[in-house]
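User: Study the chain.
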Amino acid sequence: MQNKSTRFLIDTNLFIAAVKHGETKSTELLLKLLEGPWDLIADDILLAEYERYANQFDAEDLLALLKKRMIVIEQSEQEIRKCRQYFSSVAAADIIHAAACLHAGAILISNDTHFKEIDKAGVIEVWTIAEAIEKFLD
């Protein structure tokens, strides 16, 4: 992985994969992102999702580390509108996550298939967890 400054948004499914079954490649990836020089961004909805799963999987310490490193992004209505066209109406949280990435120029790390169209259109860049593991750990 290049050592340039890059921004990333860590979707909830990476957080869950990192804490649900003990130490895995997903855990290694999350720790690498936390310890590295990269900016980690989030939005208020994502933080609420992290909190829910941190409580469920007893990962409050990891959540505290994430909160210290994260930059919370406020999206504009224009960014939300630009992203909305690539999602169904049931994916409201994903629209906000995509708008945060658009605002910050961040790469979204997620296995959520809701993001395929917006990635394909080139509005934001999306990596699967496996792609991020390959880029950072292999």
About this structure: The mean pLDDT is 93.
